[in-house]
Amino acid sequence: MSRNLSDWLLLWSVLVMYRLYVDEVGNDDLTHTSEEAHRFLSLTGVVMKIDHARDHLTPSMNWIKSDILDHDPDEPAILHRTDIVQRKKGFWRLNDDAVCDLFDRAIIRLITSSDFRVITALIDKHWMLGQKHWTNMQPYHYLMEILVEKYVQYLERMRSVGDIMPESRQGADKRLQRAYDGVRDAGTRYVSKDRIESALRAPNLKFRAKKENTAGIQLCDLIAHPSHIYVRQQMNHDVTPGAFCQRVTQLLIDEKYDRSAGGLVRGYGIKHLP
After folding, report:
1. Which CATH class is domain 16-273?
2. How do the domains of the chain map onto residue ranges?
3. Spatial distance between the Cα atoms of 197 and 264, rounded to a whole number of angstroms
4. Residues pairing with 165 in the sheet
5. Alpha helix (H) ranges present in the chain?
6. Could you check whether the bond before residue 274 is cis, i.e. omega within 30 degrees of 0?
7. How far apart are CA 162 and CA 200, in angstroms?
8. 62 to each of 65, 107, 133, how far by Cα in Å?
9. Of 26, 44, 196, 243, which shows the fewest CB atoms inside 10 Å?
10. Residue 168 phi/psi, 5° resolution?
11. Bridge partners (DSSP) listed for residue 123
12. Which residues are CB-contacts of 75 (< 8 A; sequence separation ≥ 6)?
């Protein structure tokens, strides 16, 4: 083995590897943007050390599934907000108030005890279509640009490197990869192409389907909707979060959103257009 290659491998081995787990709320449909249900799209990223996901998040989440949900290990419960709210699949057990209370407290404890940072970017698609000077009317492009920019800046502060793992959305995967390719090729207003490539070595997103039972993806799923609602509150929208959503949001505000050294969250942990 050459000395240069050996030195590079040694350097890589001592770098802490981070992963950005990504989930979306909304869709990129541009045909019904005047309707409230189709107007807003957000991408939320959970930044976590890969070894923390392996050594803490995954076993802690598995405990919830086995000891509270009593799931079948060969058909594991997948923590998905829609299934939880609708009590579908293994979550029918939450119809028992005592089990539901235990589950809610366990999820809050999981979020509190896990070490991660959150970045959410949201766009009003109806507003976007009214910006005549914008030639690229692709909401995913703008949100991915923001997410990559903020993630790279975080990695630089940590003096580390990372990759990105979004939840697979089948038809949306290619659009998200194209948006990522565009950001890597051109850079952003605040982060150059070279800085992106230095912090994010992998050229491809590491898509994972929900059924693959990735703990980081499931954590992101639990956080994405409360964060989406909170950002819309910051935009003075008429939205009403539920009780559990409020508890999660408060945790994000108190400690989980990425922030400046002075504690500023806006521009670090959250950004919205307009």
Report:
1. alpha beta
2. 16-273
3. 27
4. 21
5. 3-14, 36-39, 50-52, 58-63, 81-86, 97-113, 125-129, 139-158, 171-186, 193-199, 215-234, 243-251
6. yes
7. 5
8. 5, 12, 49
9. 243
10. -70, 130
11. 41, 273
12. 90
Under 8 Å between Cβ of 197 and 56 = no
| CA distance readout (Å), 52 to 39, 260, 263 | 36, 23, 24
Nearest residue to 207 via CA among 160, 162, 174: 174
Residue 148: strand, helix, or coil: helix
User: Could you list the pLDDT tens digit for every one of the 274 residues in the chain?
Assistant: 555 655 555 454 557 799 999 999 998 889 899 999 899 999 999 999 999 999 999 999 999 999 999 988 888 999 999 999 999 988 999 999 999 999 999 999 999 999 999 999 999 999 999 998 877 778 988 999 999 999 999 999 999 999 999 999 877 898 889 989 999 999 999 999 999 999 999 999 999 998 999 999 999 999 999 999 999 999 999 999 999 999 999 999 999 999 999 999 999 999 999 9
For tokens 């230095």, what's the residue? 198
Rounded-to-integer distance, Cα 90 and Cα 70, Å: 8
Q: Which residue has the tokens 């923001």?
A: 146
